[in-house]
Amino acid sequence: MFSPQFNVCIPFLLLAPLFNVCMHPFFNLCTPLTNCSHLEVYIAMTYNQRLLADMSLLRLQQKHVTKAIWEGNEILLRLRRHAIYCMKHNDRLDDYIKNLIHHAGFRHFLTLTHIEINHHLITALVERWRTETHAFHLSLGEAIVTLEDVVVQLSLLSMKN
Amino acid sequence: MITGVSSGDLVPLYGQLLGFVPPKIVYKGNSIKLSWFNNEFQDLPHDADDVTVAQHARAHILTLIESLLMLDTSGSRVHLMYLLLLSDLDNVSNYSWGSSVLVCLYHAFDHRVNFNQENIDGCTLLLQCWAWDRTTCLSSPVQGLSEVDVANGLGFSLVKR
After folding, report:
1. Inter-CA distances, A75 with A78, A79, A94, Å
2. CA distances from residue B120 to A127, B69, B142 in whole angstroms, order as listed
3. Closest Cβ–Cβ partner in B60, B68, B158 for A101
4. pTM of the full predicted structure?
5. What is the sign of the dihedral through the CA atoms of B64, B70, B71 and B74?
6. Interface ipTM
7. How far is residue B136 CA from its own chain's centroid?
8. Would you call B3 an interface residue with chain A, using a CB distance cutoff of 8 Å?
9. Chain A residue nearest residue B125, CA to CA
10. Rounded to 5 degrees, what are φ and ψ at A108?
11. What is the pLDDT of residues B121-143, one digit of tens each?
């Protein structure tokens, strides 16, 4: 019964009381367990490439990209990037046009400098996305991009005023 | 609420809203080559009236939306589905652009994880900035903001990285 995988679990179990981390048991990579009754679940996760014992909620696992990744078909995402004239040549835009773009609520995009998108970061994040809950399942719990983030990051309003 | 018209013939609108009718070679269905779009709207004529200025602003906003905020996987083409929403530029800021950007992003994630696509559309810029913001160990260093920057509303993360 005490397989090598079990030994791998031991350090996490010992550390468990030190971290009172959110115990959402989705896709945890190294989340410590505070409750020993979860031991079996945890061993199952380690054996079965860290899937939940109870997959009733994540019912689309068969279609999920993790299946392909575990079979060795990992791919780096290709992102669409286009040159956008009004961002690249902001200084050549006429003030009248700038005013209208400001007025329409898109003014922050004219102030953007060139930002490199990290393909690896995007790929890693999107692999952890779950369609059933519409959230990223990370080792510390679930995370989600909200409307508030859109407002803060892109300054695009989602409601009037 | 934002919905775009993706079917039907939008050619009659080109002349009215954008001030040109594109040659047949650059459009397919209702989408136009981005490179042609960028070339056509580079410089505002010196004797431009309000209508021409509005047409140029519409074109720039449309390229921003289609090439940065709500990308599709069609490569380097600009779809004109949102052009109708830009007909009254005073009203553009009343639309909930933020929520549609978020919906497009969720849709892109769903497609990636369920169909194992190699390309990803949606606003990956938003995802990266969100990840940087929420997981500071991932982010590149932030340059300091001066008081003038803050006063100009440049305090959000995109600008200073």
Report:
1. 9, 12, 43
2. 12, 13, 27
3. B60
4. 0.74
5. negative
6. 0.80
7. 27
8. no
9. A117
10. -65, -25
11. 888 888 888 888 887 777 766 66
